[in-house]
Amino acid sequence: MPRVLHVAQSADYGLARFLFDLVGDQVERGWTVGFAGPADAPLPEGADRIAWAASREPHRDVPAESRRLAGIVEAFQPDVVHLHSSKAGLVGRLVLRGRRPTIFQPHAWSFLAVGGATRAAAVMWERAAIRWTEVVVCCSQAEYRQGEEHGIRGRYRVVPNAVDLQRFAVVDRREARERLGLGEGPLVACIGRLSHQKGQDVLLDAWPAVRAAVSTARLVLVGDGPDREALAARAGEGVELVGRQPSVEHWLAAADVVAQPSRYEGLAITVLEAMAAGRSIVATDVEGMAEAIGGGGAIVRPGDVGALGEALVHRLRDPDLAAAEGRAGRERAAHSHDLRTWGDRMAELTLGLVRTP
Question: Where are the beta strands (DSSP E) in 165-227?
Fold first, then answer.
């Protein structure tokens, strides 16, 4: 049975769900699984929690973060180290340098979040660090193609993100709204970290046109993050920020349409959850979206305020269309994003890297 160490700088929102599912699957297989990251990360029973504090940005703290992670690796003695997102990918590969089998999973490439010289430096780093990476796991074909197109040449595996279909089984909309204290009327939900990446500001720009066309429409932003104050200051009629919620199942069930106006992604877990909940989705054409959604909703250009608003209005005015797209999304999630199949694929990949003495 292998010893696997997962490393992540943060464990919020979609990444938190991903880590909980992956770590839980490996624990159930009888593996020894550790997680180095935030002390309060939500983890399943049976995993070894090892506090590793790191800043989000690659600043002068990197040497100290590297020393702490090196001590964790030495104490845990993993057979495989699985690094999640850019900061863990940076520090982890500086520490390991190929001395232990290393999986890197971008969860959206770091260079997508920046521009200019910083973007060029991030690409150069990924090209260099690939030599210390046995496998790069991408959650969509689009994410894989991005790596290749930016000259990051290595061994890739595409394992699309997955969702617990039972957890997000279709719930009656009326029941969900009663539970949340919501009334009747057209409802759009946007779930995720309140940040530039997730594009809630673009959604707020589109919302006045939605309200002009559907006067009773409401929008709920579920989540918290660095942009909360700025978004709250801009929220107009029919918009409510409800903060971070312990679970999102009933918010998805309550919605008529789920909006995902991201500027960049790998493959958003929230989109898969909305599909599993049988909800129509309006999302931007960023990495993994069209690939995942198929006929389960509409895809618009990132930052296109007019197209985003029109797509939402079309579905709020045509509940039958939204319902049909929700059913198609649920079928697609069951076919291509089942958590059980995903766990088997991730386990096979990880076991293939364990080195025999």
Answer: 187-191, 218-222
CA geometry: angle 13, 15, 21, nearest 5 deg = 105
CB 331 within 8 A of CB 227: no
For position 113, what pLDDT does the model report? Answer: 84
| C-alpha to C-alpha distance for 284 and 307, rounded to whole angstroms | 10
- Helices in 77-186 by DSSP H: which ranges? 85-96, 116-129, 141-149, 173-180
Residue 6 has what DSSP assignment?
E
pLDDT number for residue 357:
66
Concatenated DSSP letters of 32-50? EEEEEE-TT----TTPEEE
Of all residues in the chain, the percent with pLDDT exceeding 90 is 83
Rounded CA separation 322/173 (Å)? 13
Strand order in the sheet with 280-284: 239-243, 218-222, 187-191, 257-260, 280-284, 297-300
The structure's pTM equals 0.86
At residue 228, the 3 state secondary structure works out as helix
d(CA 86, CA 257): 31
The 10 Å CB-count burial string (b at 16+, else e) for 99-124 is ebbbbbbbbbbbbbbeeeeeeeebbe
- The residues, ordered by sequence, that sit 6+ positions from 118 with a Cβ below 8 Å of its Cβ are none
pLDDT at 167: 86
Average pLDDT on 330-339 reads: 92
* Integer Cα distance of 300 and 348 in angstroms: 36
